[in-house]
Target: Triosephosphate isomerase
Amino acid sequence: MRKPVIAGNWKMYKTLGEAKEFALQLKELQVDSTKVDAVICAPALFLDQLVQATKGSFISIGAQTMHEEKEGAFTGEVSGHQLKDLGVDYVVIGHSERRQYFNETDESVNKKVKSAFENSLTPIICVGETLEQREQNETETIVSNQVMAAIEGLTEEQLIQSIIAYEPIWAIGTGKTATADDANDVCQAIRETILDGFGEEVASKVRIQYGGSVKPENIEELLSKEHIDGALVGGASLQADSFVKLLEAGANA
Ligand SMILES: O=C(CO)COP(=O)(O)O
Model:
């Protein structure tokens, strides 16, 4: 059985004080970390403090993007090498907002994924279709192509460690969730893509999350589906009580 992984993506929300307060609230709570992996992907500017504040707890810290080079003249960017040095363990790569507003492409996503592994970071690789693509029945083709491009050149071992997040763009921050069955169908298509390239054993081990308006009210149904192994959550990860409910659902899935 694959261990569920629940990751909060805070996007460009929270001040340092609010982030520390959140970490304090979480530290008081008990979540069975043998049953669920819990990750907070925070803005880069307070990753350091969050790593320190959550040390020894069930929470791991992730970044929301990274540059593929180790260092260089890339104003405003942060490298995987720098993230690892802070004690960060995860990094979101290829989020649709990065693809849309910051020109990330399948090619740059692949480079970042490889660089994440070079720096011992676990990539959460985001894929997903637009509403228009869904209406034209292109979802599975688009998503499978994004996955193939992102994982190109990875070893089996690296692929098994990767997390893939299926996030239909039309469901992000809109309150519109894909139905659990629709989300499961696309996650299954992703697994079949991996199966075609890497075989059954690898495909059966890769964890695939769903993301897009996940909240405490709908997470149980999503996680009950065979191919959904967790969630990447924006809005509902911003409050500690709501995030904990998501983690509990993960631990009980
Ligand atoms: O983009 C998302 C997570 O990466 C989803 O955001 P929402 O949960 O706010 O829809």
Summary: The longest helix spans residues 180-198. The chain has one domain: 5-251. The longest strand covers residues 122-127. Residues 9, 95, 167, 172-173, 211-214, 232-236 surround 1,3-dihydroxyacetonephosphate (CB under 6 Å).
